[in-house]
Specification:
The chain is of the alpha+beta class. The chain is built from 14 helices and twelve strands.
Length: 471
């Protein structure tokens, strides 16, 4: 068989389609190829080896440092993408609303106006965040809640809104506004909200001091309840039953002292059967402008008035129940304690002098013998109460057997006047309206006191009542 001659210098077929074959040829074949293929053979072998190496590199996974770098870059890109998106700020809207309403009291005049202003500001804040908070459940819950509250309070959608920057638009004749401005000027330092104190006087008479101490006192005549740099309150007590040292209030004088440009001095005076809805000068308000810094509001004609002093954050309730008057006051602590050393005789601050006390550390001497006033002193129209009947009578209005309940029982046993039941009940209502701390509304006598009288304590109470009240 004749061989077909190959032309010199012609192209040499070099198949590199199989990387494995090209990468690992037998040693003899490689020698023959180098010998018989001339100069072109080495170049083909080198090309095959280079392609096989490239293929191996493509199949090999990237090293760990490379993966770490790529992962880090991905996180940075993702973070950058998140930072470009505007966050949902519904939490900021809610926080602002809470700060605007936390100091408000629903029992105080002007609550609805301020609450509606805060609601409109809250609504405006949610509207500004409507796009970025579209899928946020908290946002949608807030929108629904705002709508419900505006309906409940009859708030219009259009109107003034509360400012979250009180330093710019605060009212100098609004105590709450001044406090908010102080907090804003304080920067990032957290300022506690202003503390408020409560004082009340009712019944025979029973005193609840600013420190929540409960006392029953004689204090016949004129006595100062409050006497500080902003407010003076004086009460006059008269005997309830002839021959008894137990007294009740028949006159109240309140002096709102002049304060900067907010109000001039105003005097209010109430006596039994004359509970006016105006100050002694005939006016019903103090201060200039549409929003008065001091106002009198008549709730029940001749029976119940309220005084709202916005410039000192103070509210006063005065009632007539039966033949006697009751008083309840809510005032900021920093103002209530702003007085000179010579003004230390204040029943709301320091309580009654020990010589004027009827109770024993808050415990009232309850009698099982009914009234102890002298024979013939009681009105023939008034019933004679025993401990049992007085307890039943007081329980009709007050279900909780706290110190107000036992004050009611004590007053019925001492006077036989059923109006003292209503006085104790209204006094407790005033506490619930004005006292800043709900957990302190009710004061309970300790075990063995008026709450659960034993036979011995009742006998001792009888003796104490006879000695203390009628001597």
């Amino acid at each position: 068989m004749m061989r077909k001659k190959r032309k010199r210098g012609g192209p040499i077929a070099c198949s590199c389609s199989s990387p494995v074959a090209a990468a690992a040829p037998p040693l003899e074949s490689r020698r023959a190829a180098w010998t018989g293929m001339g100069r072109a053979a080495p170049s083909c072998a080198i090309a095959s080896a280079a392609r096989a190496e490239q293929q191996r590199r493509r199949l090999r996974p990237p090293p760990l440092p490379t993966l770490t770098l790529l992962f880090s870059l991905g996180l940075l890109l993702h973070t950058g993408d998140c930072q470009l998106q505007t966050p949902c700020r519904i939490q900021k809207c809610t926080t602002d609303f809470v700060s605007l309403t936390s100091h408000l009291n629903s029992a105080i005049d002007g609550f609805d106006l301020e609450f509606c202003k805060a609601l409109r500001a809250y609504s405006a804040c949610t509207y500004r965040n409507s796009k970025v908070c579209r899928g946020n459940l908290v946002y949608h819950s807030a929108v629904l809640g705002i709508s419900d509250l505006m309906s409940q309070r009859n708030c219009s959608k259009d109107g003034p809104t509360s400012s979250t920057n009180p330093e710019v638009t605060h009212d100098p004749c609004n105590y709450s506004g001044r406090q908010a401005a102080k907090e804003h000027r304080g920067g990032e330092q957290t300022q506690p909200p202003p503390a408020y104190l409560f004082c009340g006087l009712f019944g025979d008479p029973h005193l609840r001091t600013f420190k929540d101490h409960f006392q029953t006192c004689k204090v016949e005549g004129a006595w100062p309840l409050i006497d500080n740099n902003y407010l003076s309150v004086q009460v006059t007590n008269v005997p309830v039953v002839s021959g008894s040292s137990a007294t009740a209030t028949n006159k109240i004088t309140i002096i709102f002292k002049s304060y900067r440009d907010c109000t001039e001095q105003k005097v209010y005076q109430a006596v039994t059967d004359d509970l006016p809805a105006a100050f002694v000068d005939g006016t019903t308000s103090g201060g200039d402008g549409d929003t008065k810094s001091l106002r009198i509001v008549e709730r029940v004609s001749g029976k119940y008035v309220e005084m709202h002093a916005r410039y000192i954050g103070t509210t006063v309730f005065v009632r007539q129940v039966g033949r006697y008057l009751t008083l309840a006051i809510r005032m900021p602590e920093e103002l209530a304690m702003a007085y000179e050393e010579s003004q230390d005789l204040q029943l709301c601050v320091n309580g009654c002098p020990s010589s004027e006390r009827i109770d024993d550390s808050g415990h009232l001497p309850l009698s099982v013998m009914g009234q102890l006033h002298p024979h013939g002193a009681a009105s023939p129209t008034r019933p004679v109460y025993t401990l049992e009947s007085a307890t039943i009578k007081c329980h009709e209005k007050m279900l909780v057997k706290d110190i107000y309940f036992y004050s009611c029982v004590f007053d019925l046993l001492t006077t036989g006047d059923a109006n003292f039941t209503a006085a104790a009940h209204s006094a407790l209502q005033d506490v619930e309206a004005l006292h800043p701390r709900k957990e302190r509304w009710h004061i309970f006598p300790s075990r063995g006191g008026a709450g659960q009288p034993s036979t011995l304590s009742l006998r001792l109470g009888l003796v104490c009542l006879m000695l203390v009240v009628f001597l």
